[in-house]
Amino acid sequence: MSLTKEHQQLLLVVARTSIQHGLQTGCPLKIILEDYPSVLAEY
Q1: Which residues lie below 8 Å from residue 37, measured CB to CB, with a gap of 6+?
Q2: How many other CB atoms sit within 10 Å of the CB of residue 4?
Q3: How many distinct structural domains can be found in the chain?
Q4: Which among 42, 3, 39, 41 has a CA at the least distance from the CA of 31?
Q5: If you average pLDDT over residues 9-14, what whole number do you get?
Q6: Which of 6, 14, 23, 33 gets the highest tally of CB atoms within 10 A of its CB?
Q7: How far apart are CA 10 and CA 12, in angstroms?
């Protein structure tokens, strides 16, 4: 199954946010899976 362009963009935003958060705080970003489309949980 392939992701839609919107889902791909959302994953990139989450990745960027996570990296920035980690660099600023030294801790991983806490992700609440329920806040995102369920299809993304497969990736």
Answers
A1: 7, 10
A2: 10
A3: 1
A4: 41
A5: 95
A6: 14
A7: 5
In sequence order, the 6+-apart residues with CB closer than 8 A to the CB of 18 are: 28, 29, 31
Rounded CA separation 14/43 (Å): 13
Q: What is the pLDDT of residue 1?
A: 64
Task: Please indicate, yes or no, whether the overall pTM of this predicted structure exceeds 0.85.
Answer: no
* Structural domain boundaries, residue 14: 5-42
C-alpha distances in Å from residue 40, one per residue of 25, 26, 30 = 25, 25, 16
Mean pLDDT of 26-30: 96
Residue 41, both tokens: 């949980």
